[in-house]
Amino acid sequence: MEKNIIDAIEEKLGYLFSNKALLVQAFTRESYAKEQRVKGLDIESNEQLEYFGDSVLNYLVVSGELDHFTKTTDNGLRVLYKESKLSEFNSHWTDKNMLSECIDNLGLAEYLIMSKGDINQHAELNKSVREDLFESLVGAMWIDSNKDTNKIKDVVFNMLGIKFETTSVEKSYVSQLIEFADKYKYKLKKEAEPFVGGFKVTFSVDLNFLPSEDKEERTWYGTGVGKNLKEAEANAAKELLNNLNEFGFGPERTDLPKMDFDLDNSVNCLQELSQKGYIGQVTYEDDLCFSTEKKPYWKVTVKISDFITTFDASNESKKTAKKQAAYDALCFIYYLQKNDINNPQNKQFRFLLDADIDEDDIRVFVIDSYSMMKATGTIYPDNKKTTIFMDKYFQDENGHRIEIYNDPQEFLFEWYTRNRNNHPKERRSDNAERLGLFIQEEYNKLSDNVKQNGVLLREALLDIAKRIDI
Predict the structure, then answer these.
(1) Cβ 344 vs Cβ 454: under 8 Å
(2) Phi and psi for 341 in degrees, rounded to 5?
(3) What is the CB neighbour count within 10 angstroms for residue 432?
(4) Are 106 and 12 a contacting pair, CB within 8 Å?
(5) Quick count: other Cβ atoms within 10 Å of Cβ 209?
(6) pLDDT 10s digits, 291-348
């Protein structure tokens, strides 16, 4: 691993290694180490560090709970929260998804040292691989600090973005959905069925959506698939909650506070919006680049967890580039986002499938606004502005039944099997599992920017369809 890469990693972590070999080992996959051992080289992998890091991480979180959630009195130790609440807190901050997300936010997976097989399979996209990397780094820092947890606890807590408030522990999507239905006395229904490579779950809830005496009930849906029932339930509940929030049945949104920001205070202002919950988590990535005249300069990228758009700025000074990127983000948040209604960034979308005719092209509906279960937006690729009644399907002006798909993978599976002449109906069952697995594998390789942008995702799905060979 080159020195400039080690320097970049240490800056992202906020920790300088005395023994750089421990840092390199934390990024070395066992598959790569095996490849090198065959060549006669003595290479250590991160498996050993991962073992210690897992235990140290749990200790640090529990130690933080002890510092923040307990008081020592004359009668002994007083715990401010019940054991179940403490366990929930601990589980949240040591969960695979959380650790994987933290590695993503820090931009560290790209530095993994992997075998050819791992590279071909894009192992860096695997949540378990990113979880292992997080735990390995904790183990490496612990050993490097001579097992002094006080020297690394703040570093680890910053990596996690941890706040010692039980309210900061996000409840599971299923729990949130159940609480919502219980609070307003709505009947929550669930349908589960086997799906390609796992399960498919649909949650539905009946809501009164007309603010009049003649209230009409309409069913709202959220569908999700997963490798197991729990994952499918979580994805379905998340989608239904998102739909409810978008239509105004979820928590009320708070308008952005008035803020006088400029280039000098832009970083602090952006962080303040994040800390107060107006926007998602803010992270920065920086790269040392060289101009055509071989002069060095810094490129800084700002990422906000609930935004598709990223913000870049370049300058000879990394500090100035960071301020400019943050300033551009603030300008977008306060001005452009409200006015640029034709931009498909940061908008929900649905895929449309005509049940009555074969379609050679893929159509995506990018949503601009909602009103009383009706969505107004643009259908791509023909840039057609329209308003449709959002349900599982609707009828177009030609009387055709148009099915609406929230899940891109499910849509591509249906679109391909229905509309490709080289895959007749009698062969669908034989090829269904293989087709589903291929689509899932290719979809997982797509970046988050593509997955969250309907127009870009449409192009990506068309490309996947061209490469299907089963």
Answers:
(1) yes
(2) -75, -15
(3) 14
(4) yes
(5) 15
(6) 888 889 999 998 887 665 678 889 999 999 999 999 888 887 775 444 444 444 556 7
